[in-house]
Amino acid sequence: MDKQLNLFSIQDKEQSAVSDGIESLGLPPKASLAHEASGRNEQDMLNSQSSILNSQSSILYSSLEEAKSAAMSCKKCVLCKERTKVVFSDGLENAKIMIIGEGPGENEDLQGLPFVGRAGQLLDKIFTSVNLNRKEHLYICNVVKCRPPNNRAPADDEAEACRDYLEAQIKYIDPKIIILAGAVAVKKVLKLKDPKITKLRGQWIDGMGDLLQGRKIMPIFHPSYLLRHEWNKNPDSPKALMWQDIQEIRKSYDALK
Ligand code: SF4
Known about the structure:
With 257 residues, the protein is α/β, with parallel strands linked by helices. The protein is 40% helix and 9% strand. It is built from 13 helices and six strands. Strands 1-3-2-4-6-5 form a six-stranded mixed beta sheet, sandwiched between helices. The longest helix has 18 residues, at 238-255. It binds iron/sulfur cluster. Iron/sulfur cluster (SF4) binds at residues 71, 74-77, 79-80, 86, 144-146, 158, 161-162.
């Protein structure tokens, strides 16, 4: 696994080997690896926040399987009423990287898998551009496991009702890196009132509490947000920033070994 995976070799081959991912992302060819120093205040703010997740080790379920089985027939919130399928997760159950989104959309609801629509395909391309994929490296889930009607953001009480499942996923998958895709995931997981994803993206946050301690957390743009933006040669464009962030994620993943 991970044979010859090297961030810099990927950069060298950016117009060929990873063209599928990069070109369709419209990512800039020479994006800098330098990490933005800005956002320090936001990180300080984050480090002082309580999370929606328990700081105590009071996980309701004794295994991931038990949590999944409970979720499959769950009626703890109103989202159960209109769902087609419960969307629990996809990916590797001992992944070092967990990606958490806000909730299932239409395609996800129909297929019972997270991030399988256009935005999900873009997410896959972003990660495969640095040779990370859901079969070998990633575990993907959402704050809520059932689709909110009309793709609205999940309400606080819905996120709270679904919290036990997310806690079980974090405990039993035991990821070293948690990626929060989009402002809603940041808001719900880190319990922030009005997170500015443009400021927080790309910032590493040290997890706190029993469940998150020792894990590195990074907010990134939601891929559906990226779909609405073309790359325009501006190094501050969302896709250029995403390119920086995915390389930073790859670098941290490599440092785990
Ligand atoms: S969103 Fe979560 S808490 Fe609500 S019904 Fe679905 S699984 Fe249960």
